[in-house]
Design goal:
3-stranded antiparallel sheet, 10-stranded antiparallel sheet, alpha+beta
Amino acid sequence: MGASSSTANPSPEAHEQREQETLASATLALPLLRAAFTRTSSSSAGAGALPDALAPPRGASFLRPPGSPPPPPHFHGLLAGLGPAVASLFSAGGAAALEGDAGWVPFLRGFNRCCARVSASRSLALLHRVYANACAAAGAPCGVQFQPGDEGGDEEGKVVGELAPEEIAAFLWMCWVMAWSGSAPRDSGDGGNKSEPVVVLLPDVTHLVLSALVSAGAVADDDGIWGWEISRGGKGLKVQEFTSWVISTASGIGNCLSRYVQGRFRSLVADPTEESSVSTVDTAFDTSDVFLLTRGRAWAIALSLRNKLSEKFLSASVIGMDTEDLLYRSSVHGKGLSRFWSGVEGYKGPMLILLSASSKGGVENVDSDRRWVIGVLTEEGFESKDMFYGSSGFLCAAHPIFRMLPPSGKEKNFVYSHLHPQIRVYEANPKPVGLAFGGTVGNERIFLDEDFSKVVARHHAVDKTYQHGSLIPNQGYLPVEASVLEVEVWGLGGEATRRQQDVYKKRENIFSEQRRKVDLKTFGNWEDSPEKMMMDMMADPNRVRREDR
């Protein structure tokens, strides 16, 4: 009876260990966690093993992208303190509390604190704490402060303070480096092989910082947006306002810490031979932003989505998009709906259409930085119809400010793509030829004409398909007509969808070749042809002819 009673009533320590292991196993495999704990808690590893394991890969030099503001002077010091800042979340008693078998439960407790499923506000509070600790280690200014909770129930406390525009940019860049670390290899110093230094260009986050400031009213949504720069400084945001913007616009930021910790532990216990093969790929990617889909815009879209496409855009923000996914680019393939259709026809998968335009309509305005970029994310392929169709989609403003407009759920006028019919007939009220998104036929929210020379953007009042929000700064209620500068279409369906499109195009080419070929045998002999009979009758109409029977 005593033994059964002991088994039925385990000690509080054993009960807590079982709870923590169950919670942790829902996020990461326990054998992997045990291996990571062994490597970071052994006496031979030293007290700095866990901060080193949670630090970003060494040997990377982070530079600003061309034409964007540079990172603050203390940014590299902030990244150097990132590992200790994350490690401080694992144990309030320091690294000594995690040594030996007795440190397994505190290790799990810290892992669950970082990676367990919690509310968005709590995960952001942890990320703010990491940022504040890293800034303190780098001696950098930080407007984030923490106050104890009213009832002491929340160990994170209440986050208060104010973030200046430069701090918002540094915070976003820190989150991007954490995402980049998930695809970068851990530096292997055991074998004596030092990897070559990696030069990494940080993405431009001006459109994200501006989106946060406009959402809180710190910057007016008017002509002042054009040419706005982070280096101007100005009024900042309260932490609560910034948190509200993240939850509504860039909810993916809340997952940065969890993904970062899991990625660092996976890299810690990975086979060095496998990791070295990965490093050759990750260090050779092209970081230049030559397309409309820059890495900064790809990351902004990834943060705003909550579906499987988020991973696709997150990868694009780190290593760039695969050029094989570029279905159409007007500067390369030519402008016009027919050229566009030759690139997207047969692609039955999600696509991103990016459009760059100048709202004052002339070439002389191109160099004045009054250029804007909008995008459309479709969930399915294009069809030639004289009506709206589609099941889901998103509109987004990509430059100079970022906004993502998901479906409203009221109507389903997602896509309109109408080409000239092959057999033309008279129509009393012909439907417009071109591309459109949202609104109704003749009153579209976005309409791109047949020649891809003009685009019209209307106020959201005409549209019940996508949520409200301006696509262009200072848009107003009147339609905005603009000259199209560039159009890009990216396929997001992966290699399988590309293969299906290739099969479709090959089949269509075979049909086209068959229609071009003329089989002369089908016309028969000239002596028996109707044409010869008609010519003979015209030559001598009175001639009596004998009918062959």
